[in-house]
Specification:
Elements (H helix, E strand, L loop, with lengths): L4 H38 L14 E4 L4 E3 L7 E7 L6 H15 L8 E7 L7 H10 L7 E5 L2 H10 L4 E5 L2 E4 L2 E5 L5 E6 L6 H11 L4
Parallel strand pairs: 3-4, 4-5
Antiparallel strand pairs: 1-2, 1-5, 3-8, 6-7, 8-9
Length: 212
Amino acid sequence: MMKSKLECQKIKKGILSLLFLGILALAVTLQSCNQKVKAAEKDKPISDLSIYNLPSKWTNQNGQNIEMKDMKGKVLVMVMIYTSCKAACPRLVADMRNIEKRLPENIKDKVQMVLVSIDPEADTPKRLKAFAIENKMNSNQWVFLRSTEENTREFAAVLAVNYKKVSPIDFSHSNIISVFNADGELTYQQEGLGVNSDPTIAKIKEEAQKIN
């Protein structure tokens, strides 16, 4: 006997409901797996070469106190500058902006652009915030940091950045942009002003693609 039209519609609805429930269950499973992978990455032991071992405390441009390990899980692109610099630092800032601008949109949320002050006395959080706004670097992509003189010296040594105060308002310093992987390990350095940043961007892309 042939099924009625009403019975056929009921069967179709039943099949669609089962399909929907199956897709929903799959989505929940995938989300759960993804969360487990992220949790495992977060709990991954820090290597001896990671900057996340540093116990130093820092303050960002918003006046928030952080540690380097608070940025764990992202590729870090770092440079050391001071906001009152009129010579090399504007070029370094331009290089950082150029690198950020050239990053593909699909990896930008995996990358943090970090500027560390070598003049913490003058570069207060308020000054860093103003500098960020002046240079159109006030999105979440950008972090400005300052700390004590001792912590700044220690961090500069990690980056192989040399600097020296040559007057009350002037410093002589290295011009280096450093790339750290998601585990806080140094993977590449760009040295000089206005140099070709293609290798730097290639390294950032490479490290970002390793992040789930």
